[in-house]
Amino acid sequence: MAAVSITPAPRLTTLMLQRKTLAIGLAVILAIALFALLAPLIAPYAPNKLSIVNRLKPPSGTYFFGTDEFGRDIFSRTIYAGRLSLTVGAAATVFACVIGITLGLAAGFFRRADAVIARIIDAMMAFPDILLAIALVAALGPSLTTVIVALGIVYAPRLARIVRASTLVIRELPYVEAARALGVPTWRIMTRHVLRNLVSPILVQATFIFAYAMLAEASLSFLGVGVSPEIPTWGTMIASGRQYVGQADWMTIFPGVAIILSVLSLQLVGDGLRDLLDPRLRKDL
Question: Where in the cell is it found (predicted)?
Answer without folding.
Answer: Cell membrane
